Amino acid sequence: MTVGPFYSAPRPFSRVMVANRGEIAVRILKAAREAGLGSVAVFSDSDAKSLHVEVADEAVHIPGESLSETYLNSEALISAALSSGADAIHPGYGFLSERSDFAIAVAEAGLVWIGPPAEAISTMGDKISARARMIESGVQVIPGEELTVPEGTDHLGVLATCAARVGYPLLLKASAGGGGKGMREVREPKLLRTEYDAASREASSAFGDGTIYVEHLLTGARHVEVQVLADSHGRCIHLNERDCSLQRRHQKVLEEAPSPAVEPELRKAMGAAAVKASQAVGYEGAGTVEFLLSSNGDFYFLEMNTRLQVEHPVTEMTTGIDLVLKQFEVAAGLPLGISQDDIGISGHAIEARVYAEDAARGFLPCVGKLSTWKVPQGPGIRVDSGVRQGDTITVDFDPMLAKLIVHAPTRRAALRRLDTALSDFIALGVTTNIGFLRDVATHHAFASGSVTTDFLDSSDVSALSMTEVDPTVLVAVACAAQKLGLERTSSAGAPESSDEHTGHSGDPFRTLTRSFP
Amino acid sequence: MEWSVVGGNGRFTVGVSDSDGRLSVSSMQLDGSTVNPPDVSIARADHGGQLKVEVSGTSHLAHVTKVGDDWWIHMDGRIHVVRMHEPGSSEAESTQGGMSAPMPGTILEILVKQGQRVREGQDLVVMEAMKMEHRIQAPRAGEITRLHYSVGDRVDMGATLVEIGD
After folding, report:
1. Is domain A222-464 classified as CATH 3.30.470.20?
2. Nearest-by-CA chain A residue for B12
3. Does the annotation count A267 as an active-site position?
4. Which of A371, A397, A424 sits opposite B130 (nearest CB)?
5. Could you give the angle at which helices A127-136 and A264-280 cross, rounded to 10 degrees?
6. Class of the A15-114 domain?
7. pLDDT in tens, A31-90
């Protein structure tokens, strides 16, 4: 018997399993609890002590270390759901979130799929069929020629001919790719082979599909994407845009809403195009239609992400709508309950992705133990974190540790809040990009709202650094820390934060002698 | 003990004076030459892992933690690493002509052969870690004298992958 908020919904469910890990698993598991739903986490061998395991009502171990044994193992995930009594699966982002065969398998197992219909996933997931569908429905696509490189044929010959027709510079994309993986820029013909091999390998390791396609590269454009929400009763609305122009090798670094380049009229036009694109595939749930916005205000369909986005919080902050809760409601078959006219924009939000990577060494991912992890707090500051103090960061997973989201009345205020919050973000023991994020967030190009997607790749990143700390002071601090014996009291454990009188950390309802209820 | 700022240049030695738990710097050398010691006064803060640092009379709070020989310092909104060295020890990173793995991962592709001449910046090895590819490039021109791994091998951080001779 189904209990909870959706007991009388058309597709009732009461216990959600999140087939994911890291910050997004934490985000969704907490949302489930808030909605009054039960929550189930899954974990691989190396995730046994991870944060997402801790926040769920129940956690199911899926033995194995490799992704194919665990978070990409649809059979094991579905049996974990069934054995734990979950009656719905939320895929998060990445992993199996955009695999229509998984969506189908979930439904066939009698579980509710918290995501769009399988047909929408497969049409949009294959970038070639997505383009064709968009052209059919009158949504403008990127200029250039559609090209397929079928697997198992003479890649290079076919590819070179195609590339010559499309013209350089071009973009090689894995048809099943996303998130910057399996995507490579090729500026001249002689680099075609190496870049193709790399893209194809990345795509098959990350998505289990090595198919690649070719597209003309638009330079000097902005990446602007529109959040959509659709229910199973035919209503589809958009929740304005996010601007994700600040990227490094097609990985988003800072994302904001609204876009500094989008005026109300353009917003309306892009929103309408996004709704049209979604309706063309019978979309349901939360999705994102990505566009490239050229400097003259023309915009072109890039792709549709048929899942929750990493950067969804900036939309939540500026519209006040909890996208994960809406995903639950739509999956339960409930109507959206809001119309386009209900959607406004409140202030400005910016998200910064905190990665374990070393900007000074070509953004190499970094590993180690997070001996200190203190996230910033305060009005208009949200941190969606997948880690906690003491966690060990390994090479097994994506190096994104957390997302910092700030919200303020204006863009200028949000920028100041972002810089302040970043400077209060204390992550010691593992090299992170926090300093780099400060450098780009305070860079005049970003502050003026004028960056295009090629900004970071065409800038000397080391020249961005604003650090001007006297090395002699740092050496003195380290030397003093050593002499004062700070290594014994480092903030790795909890004891030093507890109150010396009561022994209870920060509990305001305790006094020296007794505790209050 | 010698000290270096990771990402910076040179080795420091420091003379410290202690006045009732407040430390100040009495002398400092950089690579053997005397430099002006910073005007600092440093004491434990009330909470573990924190120091009160006065620089020329202005107060700052530093969060510090030690990992191996590295002191991680968060101060003024920036994170720094200061490394301790045994006096006279050599830099671990400056292995002569050897190309080491910048992080743990798997060898995807080896683009050179033993005995091959390479130019500076040429791609030598492709590695995968955290689902992304990284290209290991030649730090200088020379001849490949040794290849330590094969495609598919898992390597640890710092493992020497390739050696380059003249």
Report:
1. yes
2. A475
3. no
4. A397
5. 110
6. alpha beta
7. 999 999 999 999 999 999 999 999 999 999 999 988 899 999 999 999 999 999 999 999
